[in-house]
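can u do me a favor
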């Protein structure tokens, strides 16, 4: 069975014949395969190819079957308008674009040797993913634990410097900095900048003024993040109401917004859609007043998780986007354990540590470190790579130490 990651590997490293032809019989030359895209949109960007001597610069989309283009609804998606070549394994259908032209397609199955396919797994295994892996056997398990704990504290200190910068910009407003950091991690890797920008444009003090108008607060969050549909669309009653409340809120609270980021939905599970995350984030603001003060008063990390555990409004129990046809099954959108852990590791602990360092309270710094040790280790590409070399993170303190090691030492080695 051929997978898209194999297609991407073959395309990126040019493991195909030098003489290529499209499914239409046109001579094809790959000058630059492009840059691999890990976010929304085509699989490779800024590629350069020649078809029958004509140079084309644009994006490359990969699929196992050509018909996946239609199955994934790429034709109507603006992110795919600049695709210059469709690279597939099987060309089961021809792809026709709205303007009447066909999308040039390369069927790789005709140009890749069976010998290369057999060697694929070995090639992947021999890629050294950790640049300083040669040094990994030097430490015992106890040595690793002590070193990673030291690196985790180093990482917290670096975050303290970044938080101090935001404190200066907000006149030492800890609640505002908490709001901005929380918003970023609710947005995730793909929409983090969008959510952080929204939080910066909607100060927590402004949102506090409209807590007696929940729909206005909700509308301001959605609207500033460009998540509300256009008013000219065939919107349902709730969506129309929020659009009206957004216009009202902008005028009533004299808010001027300017959003440079656009929401992304692809390459993520529905419960991670920006609409769901924003509904949860706005609900958090509505339900929790003086959240940072509550964090400071919390006795344990379990209590903190309870503060961030909320459920999006009832409208979202049957939907993932505005105007979606309601699902028959009710699915309340409650904050998941993975997001709660991420917020605690990347927002709560660094802020608590920074507060202790800022006010010279060693007890708060130690409390932050203790909470980090009590939280489960993160599972990401870095921790997975180290696990292959026998270095296992038993808690979030160790996984944060591994991130610090990889990003600041292995990747930056001279």
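np, heres the sequence
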């Amino acid at each position: 069975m051929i997978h898209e990651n194999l297609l991407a590997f073959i395309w990126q490293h040019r493991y195909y014949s030098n003489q290529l032809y499209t499914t239409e019989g046109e001579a094809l030359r790959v000058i630059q395969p492009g840059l691999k895209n890990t976010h929304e949109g085509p699989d490779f960007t800024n590629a350069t190819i020649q078809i029958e001597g004509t140079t084309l610069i644009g994006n490359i989309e990969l699929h196992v079957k050509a018909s996946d283009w239609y199955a994934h609804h790429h034709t109507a998606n603006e992110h795919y308008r600049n695709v210059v070549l469709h690279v597939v394994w099987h060309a089961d259908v021809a792809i026709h674009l709205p303007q009447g032209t066909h999308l040039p397609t390369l069927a790789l199955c005709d140009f890749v040797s069976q010998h290369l396919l057999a060697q694929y797994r070995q090639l992947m295994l021999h890629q050294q993913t950790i640049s300083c892996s040669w040094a990994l056997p030097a430490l015992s398990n106890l040595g690793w634990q002590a070193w990673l704990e030291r690196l985790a504290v180093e990482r917290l200190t670096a975050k303290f410097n970044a938080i101090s910068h935001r404190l200066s910009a907000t006149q030492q407003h800890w609640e505002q900095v908490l709001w901005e950091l929380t918003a970023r991690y609710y947005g995730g890797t793909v929409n983090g900048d969008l959510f952080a920008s929204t939080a910066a444009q909607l100060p927590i003090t402004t949102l506090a003024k409209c807590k007696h108008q929940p729909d206005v607060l909700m509308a301001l969050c959605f609207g500033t993040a460009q998540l509300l549909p256009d008013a000219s669309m065939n919107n349902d009653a709730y969506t129309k109401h929020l659009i009206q409340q957004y216009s009202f809120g902008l005028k009533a609270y004299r808010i001027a917004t300017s959003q440079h980021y656009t929401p992304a939905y692809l390459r993520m599970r529905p419960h991670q859609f920006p609409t769901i995350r924003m509904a949860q984030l706005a609900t958090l603001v509505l339900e929790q007043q003086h959240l940072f003060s509550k964090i400071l008063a919390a006795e344990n990390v379990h209590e903190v998780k309870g503060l961030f555990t909320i459920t999006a409004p009832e409208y979202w129990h049957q939907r993932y986007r505005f105007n979606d046809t309601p699902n028959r099954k009710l699915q309340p959108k409650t904050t998941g354990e993975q997001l709660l852990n991420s917020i605690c590791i990347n927002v709560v602990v660094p802020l608590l540590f920074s507060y202790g360092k800022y006010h010279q309270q060693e007890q708060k710094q130690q409390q932050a470190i203790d909470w980090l040790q009590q939280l489960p280790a993160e599972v990401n590409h870095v921790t997975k790579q180290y696990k292959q070399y026998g270095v296992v993170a038993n808690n979030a303190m160790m996984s944060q130490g591994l991130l610090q090691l990889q990003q600041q030492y292995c990747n930056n080695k001279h």
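The chain has 15 helices and seven strands. hope that helps!!
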